[in-house]
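Problem 3 from the worked examples.
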Amino acid sequence: MNTDEIEKYIELENQANQLIEKIEKAKNCDAKDLKWWHISNYLENNNKIVLVPLNKNEFSNIIADTYGIYGLTLKDSRMAMICYNNECIETRKHFTIMHEIGHFLLHKNNQTYPSLMQENDYTEEDKIFEKEANMMAGMLLANKKAVQSLLDDRKPFNYLCKYFGISKPALKIRLFNLFYFQTLEQILNEEKEIKDLYAYSHKTINNYIYYNYKLTIN
């Protein structure tokens, strides 16, 4: 982890916040009240995006996959078609839709972005794109302002999951990322020598969240 990754995270967060602010103005509401469907509806109405629910057999008519597929973004110069696996549980569908919207927002070249259940077939470039889309999905599903508001109100972890329509593993990653880069930046600025940066940051973040919000994310 280095300053380049901090800068990338900040760049992604700024893009997510800019979109949230646009939707706030369009719907005349506060970010803490926005849910995943507000985002998808806004982009469908304003950015020539079509959301298409498909089952596994229908996916096989579009792309050949061996392991199964969560979602797919097909882009050209006119529009984007975002397909998602309608046989998955609801929280997985929500994450997939936001993940594919992440591809639409971040990766401007016109090509196909499959979200595979197993990542064996990803190139190194694919892995970078997938990581960015995953981060963006977390930021859109549980936007920073809403997360902070619920934490300030001491809402329990399960409440947050239901509020955002997000799975427990996805929310754990979102909360970790939300505080991780702030902690990392402080470590780098203070030039601390840490053998296991991830473990140190994880412990620091867990302690911080529990101390301030009485919320455990282990």
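Problem 4, a separate protein:
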Amino acid sequence: MNRKTFAILLAFLCMGFGDAVGPFVGLAKEQFALSNFEAQLIAFMGFIMFGLLSVPMGLVQDRTGKKFVLMLGLSIALVGLVLPLFGLSSYALFLLTILLLGAGAAILQVAGNPIMRDVSEPGKYSRNLSFGQFIKAIGSLSGSLIPFAAAKWMGMDWKVLFPIYVASLLITLIIIAFTRIQEVKADKEPATLASCFSLLSNRFVLLMVLGIFVYVGIEICLSSGVPILLSSHYGIDLKTWGLLGNAFFFIAILTGRFLGSVILSWVKPHSFFRMTVALSVLGLLLIFVDN
């Protein structure tokens, strides 16, 4: 692994910090005595930026470069996470923190995959990208595991995440800033808003986009709602064992992605898709079983 690839892998780790919004929902609900609607608004503020910024930042990236967009995402997330270091005194300030963290993660996601191709050695892009997603999953898990460890064994508050994330983002930003990356530019006109949305005229692309929209919505609702469900229905402490429910959710996703890559080598994609949809529906129905 070369130095450039290592730098981008650090960006993938920081990209995973955006998934900490899920654990934050339950923790902030208890911290600020929020209603369920107010708590879920935290997840909305975090992930709405993916919908608002993905296409515009792709257009900006076509004109300014991937490294610029990557550093912009790191900087915005850093600003958001620095705010709580001066005191997390209000729900409104926390929403602003989550909004900026979500914006930074969304921008990082726009630049992450393309720039990984630029820093990968010939024939190593797929391997590096898969490993990058694994590193991102570590960042996602940190939002549950670090507060759990801090509360269970060190008697510390869940807000210990903020200085850890700030330090990680700052180190990554400095390393990438001093890393020279030779970007590969496409031999075509930069994309426009019209050219992006014209893709939706293809029925299959439209269905794919809608499918991703529904899936991501379910994933976010589950990741943020599981700790609250464990707390309200089973009396599990959110600051300790409740967070493990969220960690288990991300571990299941990580395991499923790995198994899927293996199973798809000998099972037809459409058959595998139908099987996983059936299992997912069964899992959702089991949530409503009062056991």
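Solution to problem 4. The radius of gyration is 20 Å. The chain has a mean pLDDT of 83.
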